[in-house]
Design the sequence.
């Protein structure tokens, strides 16, 4: 009996521990939400929000804020007792903001004040999947005024603004609606005239001549490609490339070994020595240059004398001048 009692006690302890672990796991998964501070606000749309589902993320200027908790209609939420012709038929979207107690408290405190500064809710597409999310940002409050409604919201109200894609579609619809029958007829006539002009211009094109020139250009291109192909197959080109590779390898090896640096260093040292040598013998160089100038002048005088009196230069001086006897009266 005692052994059987111990077995029942162990079984009971195992069941109690399992239940405790299960409760802890459930609390870790969903229990924290019961104690996590939340804040719910709602916004209204007077256009279709197809693609926005419950659980869609909500962002404030790209920062995760919460998720969509409910999507309702104003007819079922606030206008149950309103006649059908007087109903607004808005789409009511409720958002649950979660986070730290400080963030939720600040959002709850400042939400209404931020709407006066232009805080608006917009639906935006998430990539190309067609799914939408809700984005909060500051827009022009005068351009996007709040929707009018007679009821008192159950949660703080943040006005909405049409999405950019919706604005483009609405503007296109407005433009098409503004066109009357005369404008459409005039547009059709202009399109017909444009098509006729294009047809005339195309008929005036010298298609045969353009085709011949195109064939000539293609033929020249084929010849050029053939020449390039023959040049690439030339063994001399291959040899030139190999020689260039060898030269490049040698230059790289010289650079890596430091020969180029030593050569440059030697040239610098030689230039410094020449500079010092010229500086030390600057006076002697000046005297030599002056003597060379005097020697050049003497050679110039000797050359002129040789031209005028060649015999005198070789034998002696120039001949004396003859004096003729004077005639008697």
Sequence:
């Amino acid at each position: 009996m005692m052994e059987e009692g111990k077995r029942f006690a162990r079984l009971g302890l195992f069941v109690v521990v399992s239940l405790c672990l299960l409760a802890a796991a459930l609390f870790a998964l969903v229990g924290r939400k019961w104690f996590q501070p939340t804040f719910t606000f709602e916004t209204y749309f007077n256009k279709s929000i197809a693609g926005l589902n419950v659980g869609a993320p909500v962002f404030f200027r790209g920062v995760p804020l919460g998720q969509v908790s409910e999507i309702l209609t104003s007819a079922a939420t606030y206008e149950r007792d309103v006649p059908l012709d007087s109903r607004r038929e808005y789409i009511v979207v409720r958002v649950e903001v979660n986070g730290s107690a400080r963030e939720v408290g600040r959002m709850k405190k400042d939400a209404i004040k931020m709407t006066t500064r232009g805080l608006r809710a917009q639906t935006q597409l998430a990539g190309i999947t067609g799914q939408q999310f809700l984005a909060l940002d500051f827009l022009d409050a005068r351009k996007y005024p709040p929707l009018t409604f007679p009821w008192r919201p159950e949660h703080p109200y943040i006005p909405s603004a049409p999405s950019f894609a919706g604005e483009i579609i609405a503007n296109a619809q407005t433009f098409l609606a503004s066109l009357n029958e005369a404008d459409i007829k005039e547009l059709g006539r202009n399109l017909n005239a444009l098509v006729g002009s294009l047809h005339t211009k195309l008929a005036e094109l010298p298609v045969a001549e353009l085709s011949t020139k195109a064939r000539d250009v293609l033929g020249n291109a084929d010849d050029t490609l053939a020449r390039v192909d023959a040049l690439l197959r030339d063994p001399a080109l291959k040899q030139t490339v190999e020689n260039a590779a060898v030269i490049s390898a040698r230059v790289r090896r010289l650079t890596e070994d430091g020969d180029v640096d030593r050569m440059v260093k030697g040239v610098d040292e030689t230039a410094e020595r020449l500079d010092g040598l010229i500086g030390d013998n600057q006076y002697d160089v000046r005297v030599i240059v002056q003597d060379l100038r005097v020697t050049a002048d003497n050679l110039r005088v000797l050359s002129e004398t040789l031209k005028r009196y060649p015999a005198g230069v070789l034998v002696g001086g120039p001949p004396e001048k003859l004096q003729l006897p004077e005639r008697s009266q």
Observations:
- The chain is about 60% helix and 15% strand.
- The mean pLDDT is 80.
- The longest strand covers residues 63-73.
- The first helix runs from residue 2 to 35.
